[in-house]
């Protein structure tokens, strides 16, 4: 007998425009990026900074995230297909950019975003940690929306479970309830978002304690990922024989890095920002 569960048979297509089908996954990715843009615009306005930072930061962040997510999937999960192909001279490299073909890795997105934000900080000549602390607030909310997109695609779910909230993913041929790990991650990421948003908006940590928010973000988000990955089905067949799957292995350096950043941030004295690109009124006040 199948235990009490949720029969999940959601259509991954949100709507169609002629012959073009728009998937929920794409809609939720777009929503994640637009909400992040709105939050960043509020941060820039709150801190009296040059409003041009908003559009510039958004472009750097979006392109770096998407490129990193795609290349991360190809490198971490399908290296034999994309980087170790026996006929490399004939390999169609354009497939690396075929996002519609599937395959985006969140760890690759994280690495790509870090690189893109570093380039953004260099362009505007301000401390790299400033943007990291602020993007750390937005990313968990964006991650929650992306995981809901995975749920709509009936993908990246967990092992069989007898818990009453297990999901039977009909579209992938499952006949028993599985852990809806997409929902577990989404809820955990929302909790992290509310915590970090509180620290940014209600305390002076982001203004005076450089790196505290970013360090906490890395520790909390990737610890959640490390734990939930333990009940996920392997994304690739070759992961089945591994003590830790690829998602867990890739999470460990982020957790360690977050611990180091947080430890160093707490040891430093308070250090307000005095080297940011200011808007007109704020810049005039500082000159006085």
Automatic annotation (TrEMBL):
Enzyme class: transferase
GO CC, one annotated term: plasma membrane
UniProt pathway: Protein modification; lipoprotein biosynthesis (diacylglyceryl transfer)
Function summary: Catalyzes the transfer of the diacylglyceryl group from phosphatidylglycerol to the sulfhydryl group of the N-terminal cysteine of a prolipoprotein, the first step in the formation of mature lipoproteins.
InterPro entries in UniProt: Lgt
Record-given protein name: Phosphatidylglycerol--prolipoprotein diacylglyceryl transferase
GO term, biological process aspect, one: lipoprotein biosynthetic process
The entry's keywords: Cell membrane, Glycosyltransferase, Lipoprotein, Membrane, Transferase, Transmembrane, Transmembrane helix
Membrane topology: Multi-pass membrane protein
Organism, as annotated: Rikenella microfusus
UniProt main location, coarse: membrane
Upper taxonomic lineage: Bacteria, Pseudomonadati, Bacteroidota, Bacteroidia, Bacteroidales
UniProt-listed Enzyme Commission number(s): 2.5.1.145
Keyword Transferase: yes
MF GO annotations: phosphatidylglycerol-prolipoprotein diacylglyceryl transferase activity
Residues that, per the record, bind a 1,2-diacyl-sn-glycero-3-phospho-(1'-sn-glycerol): 147
The family this protein is said to belong to: Belongs to the Lgt family.
Keyword Nucleotide-binding listed: no
Top-level taxon in the UniProt lineage: Bacteria
Subcellular location: Cell membrane
Pfam families membership: LGT
Membrane-crossing segments per the record: 22-41, 53-79, 99-121, 128-148, 183-200, 212-228, 248-266
